[in-house]
Amino acid sequence: MLATTLLLLICELQAVCAITRFYNLTLHSGVRSPDGYPREVYLINDQQPGPLIEANQGDTLEVTVFNNLTVENTIHWHGLLQRGTPDMDGVPGVTQFPIPAGGNFTYRMPLGDQYGFYWYHSHFKTYYDDAVRGPLLIHPSPSLQRPFESLAKNATDLPALLQAERNATPVLLADWYHNLSNSVYQEYMTTGAFPNCVDSLLANGRGRVQCLPDSRAMSTPVSSGGTGGGQMQSTALNALGCTPPMMFNPGYSMDSLPAVTCNNTSSPLLTIPANYSQGWLALHLVNAAATSKLRVSLDAHSMFVFAADGLYVEMQEVKVLPISIGQRYSVMIRLDQKPGKYYLRFASYPVGDMQQVIEDQAIIQYDASCTMTAIVSTGLTYTAIPYDDPRSIWMLLNGSAKAQARVLNEKNLAPLNSNTPPSSPADLTKVFTINQTDPVVWVVDKYPYSEPQVPVIYGNSSDGWTANTTIHMPYNATIDVVMQIANDSMDVMGHPMHLHGHKFWVLGSGSGPFPYSSVDDAPRSAINLQNPPYRDTVELPASGWVVIRYITDNPGGWLFHCHIQWHLVSGMALVLVEGDDLLPGIVSAPRNITTPGVSQPSVTSSSGTDQLTPRGGGMLLAVAMLYILLV
């Protein structure tokens, strides 16, 4: 009986020892060469991407950001709901004033029952594309249900899967320009030429410039049109794999742009070690790009998707994983091939006027040094260079899946816990029509968004409280949001739409304008109310529609925007306010902000003596040892 009690204590100890974890992040400038080309980079604690911020489910995070840059900044915690702390969301003009150069700001965020993989990034102008971004992981309670039973083939598999999850590697995938984002943005505003042509792709801040060979430029198919079907003339691709811009401001043309140059580099790639004897490897993947929708595959392996946007889902086995900007997926990989190195490939997926053929790689390396017994007994050999059998590569260079390669079906990402939306009709339906009205103007609903001078959450004192781009929603209501591309829009691309402060159910999507008057009028074949995906970022299809449903149960002002960096700063956003009457009692005045002065040393630390889930604390170890002695 005592042994059983102690075992239960082991399982639940960390879940009830919620504490406050303190982190300091210092933003500063430096010169780095993430893809072999040196440029100025905005660093966090002298690294890019920034350090992993981690906590246990139920903890509180307190993160002080010291801004040692010469520009203002904020940090947004992508996917965190900020229940009761809407002023901690990190959006200038909506939830806070920007952190001035030389100043600091403390974000205090109780995590409640949230768990899973998230990320943090600058939400001021275009600075997250200069490397102001990093991973954030909330370790789930040991008692939380996992979706791993379907993968376990024997009694040892389930513990190995749980261990792999505890040791999962976060991987931030991003596109990269060789110029500061301010320069890229200014060229876009001046010429009207959309900056879809990036210089490289990075995994955890590492990558290579890989110029498109002339032979590939002449033969690589590139999708075109609103749905991605058909092909463009491949001869239009330049050395970076890009097609010419589709539009310009009056008076500008291709001759107005600098010549495209490309020189291959051989900088080191990210290498992720995996222990063959443990059987499984877990990765947390996020598309932290400014421009590029990505597709990911691992040579010779399947990926088992077990979480989306931080939450457990019904398992899907895939060879190719599409990831829109801002989205996260957690995947499990069975280590069932011969020990060696395998390319984790990530490629831009060209659709509409987002046209670039570019791929980069990271390396998954089986740790043969730890598994000599297994290698000898099976006759396997260790591969010194990455395994490169064309039959085991699941994607083409342009991100298209090969015929035998299964691609993730996002519509089938049902929540593991049977989290279903209210089945009764919505209290309110909002139709937002996405439109590009000018080469450099993007709108969500008629008007381009501009940042208010006073944050919206401060009510009538804010110039944004009654703006055309601020919509006041009824509180504790079920809301349906229909998003669609305007018929007369100049763009034919998809848009990754992110809602702050909420998760939402993705009820359906399709091509063309939304063909029904409301969700209730749509057939069940078009709308899923039984087990729809539950996300915080969703892809609005090119020239198509998507419907989401959420409940306005979180008082605050929440930005709703496209996560393509250049679209957001060109007006593609709204502020959705809920719980107007409750906000004064939650947010009384700007707080935790310090004007320029001497910043503190850049360190990262946790409070107390308990440790995070993967490492285990001293008390947990002591209880475990006592349990072993008793049994």
From TrEMBL:
The chain positions of domain Plastocyanin-like read 32-141, 168-366, 455-580
Residues in the signal sequence: 1-18
Q: Which InterPro entries match?
A: Cu-oxidase-like_N, Cu-oxidase_2nd, Cu-oxidase_C, Cu-oxidase_fam, Cu_oxidase_CS, Cu_oxidase_Cu_BS, Cupredoxin
Provide the coiled-coil residue spans.
none
Matching Pfam families: Cu-oxidase (PF00394), Cu-oxidase_2 (PF07731), Cu-oxidase_3 (PF07732)
**Keywords noted in UniProt:** Copper, Glycoprotein, Metal-binding, Oxidoreductase, Signal
* Molecular function per GO: copper ion binding; oxidoreductase activity
In terms of PANTHER family, this protein maps to: LACCASE-RELATED, MULTI-COPPER OXIDASE
Q: Which family does it belong to?
A: Belongs to the multicopper oxidase family.
The name on file for this protein is Multicopper oxidase
**Species name for this entry?**
Aureobasidium melanogenum (strain CBS 110374) (Aureobasidium pullulans var. melanogenum)
Q: What broad taxonomic lineage does this protein's source fall under?
A: Eukaryota, Fungi, Dikarya, Ascomycota, Pezizomycotina
